[in-house]
Amino acid sequence: MAWQALRSRRHLCARWSLPTRRQCDHLLTTGTGFFRFGLALALGFTAWQALCGTARAQEPPYFITYSQALEEPGNLEFELKGLTASPKDANAFFSPTLELEYGATAWWTTEVYLEGQSTQNDSAVFTGYRWENRFRVLPSEHWINPVLYVEYENVNGASKSLLEVVGHDGVADLQESNQVTRSEIKRELEGKLILSSNVRGWNVSENFIAEKNLKNEPWEFGYAIAASRPLVLVAGGHSCTFCSQNFTAGAELYGGLATAHDFGLDSTSHYAGPAVNFNLPHGPTLGFSPQFGLNDNSVGVLWRFRAAYEIQQFRDLFRRSR
Q1: If residue 300 lies in a helix (H) or strand (E), which one and from where to where?
Q2: 11 in a domain, yes or no?
């Protein structure tokens, strides 16, 4: 019976296209608590969407780079974002992040992150929370659309979500044990200048990142650049699931730019890779991206995936009928 159960689990991993047996066993054992919670949440909101007729998210397929797209006023999006990797000279890990994004106004979107990680041969820990705010500067579409981003982070040193790469972040940060790193508390402010353009069906976005630990530490900098395009610009007249009109593909490049004391590319890490979104009709948006380290200071491959669910006019659910 045990052998059959293991074989069944390996079959699931083959369907999920996990790269190695070690990562497969890791995801299905050490990370199951957070993973099961996220899966249950996803299934629950899928059912809610089916009942309420809610729509899917319509954002580019980026995992790190931000575009000018904000959440529609009154809409609430739930997103489960995952990252798994096997860093050099370190244990494989799985890091899930739960995101709740709300459209406060037409020019302001606010978001809360809850993140954790589970490391093979180590432990599973909750690593902290983030509060993000994005503000659109210009109300209408222009050739370049600027957006200002401000985030407060309260995470510990065991965080492995890699939601951004700044300063001298690198593979060495992932090689220490959770017992050592979780005692380091990081309270930081992060700002981004987001520039984004839509040209002939393409979205092109550039982010400049600046992050400051609230302790007496120097500013750290980073960047992210991405481009994407729907496979089909004009939707067909019939409803279907696996049509080209439901897919958006692109690629992104991001990395660190050291600190205010030594700005540049020395001893920094950089990643690049393709990304794709699959927008299920009247359902969730699924995304996937393998991202490849571009130098020795980077992790060899990062495997990222997401599932996002949008509830239209969430605020109206709590208003009294008149």
Answers
A1: none
A2: no
Q: What's the CATH code of the domain at 104?
A: 2.40.160.40
Backbone angles phi, psi at 178, to 5 degrees: -65, -35
10-residue averages of pLDDT along the chain (322 residues): 41 44 47 47 46 53 97 96 96 98 97 97 96 95 96 97 97 94 95 96 97 94 98 79 91 98 96 96 92 97 97 79 50
Report the candidate in 119, 265, 274, 231 with the shortest Cα–Cα distance to residue 181: 119
State whether the Cα torsion 13-98-159-290 is positive or negative.
positive
Six-digit token pair at 153? 């982070």
- Per-residue confidence (pLDDT) for residue 95, from 0 to 100: 98
Q: What is the pLDDT of residue 59?
A: 79
Neighbours of 86 (CB within 10 A): 20
What's residue 237's pLDDT? 67
pTM summary value: 0.82
Sign (positive or negative) of CA dihedral 228, 166, 100, 193: negative
| 301 lies in some domain | yes
| Residue 181 within a domain | yes
Number of domain units in the chain: 1
What gap in Å lies between CA 63 and CA 97, rounded to an integer?
Answer: 12
Residue 320 covered by a domain = no
Which domain does 124 fall in, by range? 31-315
What span, in angstroms and rounded, lies between the C-alpha atoms of 116 and 127? 5
- CA nearest neighbour of 224 among 266, 269, 172: 269
Q: What is the dihedral of CA 125, 127, 129, 134, to 10 degrees?
A: -130
CA distance 251 to 289: 9
Contact 84, 18 (CB under 8 A): yes
Residue at 6: amino acid letter: L
H or E element, residue 112: strand 108-119
| CA distances to 118, 120, 172, 180, 264 from 169, in Å | 20, 21, 8, 17, 13
